[in-house]
Write a structure and sequence with these properties.
Layout lengths: L3 E9 L7 H29 L7 H42 L1 E9 L5
Antiparallel strand pairs: 1-2
Helix pairs in contact: 1-2
Length: about 110
């Protein structure tokens, strides 16, 4: 009478693929946000500075605007890093799903 044996193997069911196009799509929106920020701060400078306005309130507004510009630039840079990390994590999750463990159980048969 034969004995039962099992073997477990990991098989790739689907081929690898790149999702860099998702990164490109997300970066388009990131660039649009950066452009909108530039437009907004250029508008503020046009309204305040180019009109020759001065005084404590104007100086405070310019200082706040400058700080907000720096903060927004940092956020845009963080967004770019987050996009890169998210796409890499997504690609890894997809790759993990494409591999499956298979366990094969068989019985030895005795040869006559």
């Amino acid at each position: 009478m034969g004995e039962y044996h099992s073997i477990t193997v990991t098989e790739r069911l689907l081929s690898s693929e790149s999702f860099s196009d998702k990164k490109d799509t997300l970066q388009v929106y990131q660039e649009k946000l950066a452009d909108l920020d530039k437009d907004f701060f250029n508008l503020i400078n046009t309204v305040i500075v180019d009109k020759g306005e001065s005084g404590e309130i104007v100086d405070a507004m310019l200082q706040k605007t400058h700080l907000l510009t720096i903060k927004n630039k940092n956020l845009i840079e963080q967004l770019e890093q987050q996009i890169n990390m998210s796409v890499k994590a997504f690609e890894q999750q997809v790759e993990d799903i494409k591999e499956q463990s298979l366990t094969i159980t068989y019985k030895d048969t005795l040869s006559p």
